[in-house]
Predict the 3D structure of the following.
Amino acid sequence: DRRLGRMRLMIATDRRESGEVNWDGLKRRIEHAVEAGDLTDEAPGVVLTSPPVLIDVIRGGLTGTWLSELLKIADLKRTLAAALGVDSYEDLAALSQVKALSQAQSEAILDTVMVYLRAVEVWESAEAASSWFHAEVPALAGQRPLAIMDTFEGRKWVREVLEKIDTGTFS
């Protein structure tokens, strides 16, 4: 599929020497490609930034191929496993073989990706975000963010704390 190939190319060319995805660069490239009409509304960048497209994708179910692409991002594997309530990467890999994931799975995956991307943005690197996801955070009642990513409310709480960190508005 041309769109998937284009997204793979974008992700591959936006990797740093460490192998991590340069999310800011990727986001800019997706935005430029969309503006130029080179990607359809099914591109991940559009899905994550357009509420109507996001809702349609959730209702229709993410494809296993989309999940498979996300699983190539090492730091995201643990976060997605937590969000989907699976115990192993093999279970995640099995889900990536499904033609269309359920609405609940799709919503959990997309919400998790948005929280993860926000953490990378706030902490300014995937390494720092990953460390934070594994640390006990006083603003989360001493819990590790990764430990509460399995529920919508947990992801919401993590997102709220990230916003407070970003704006410096802790009470």
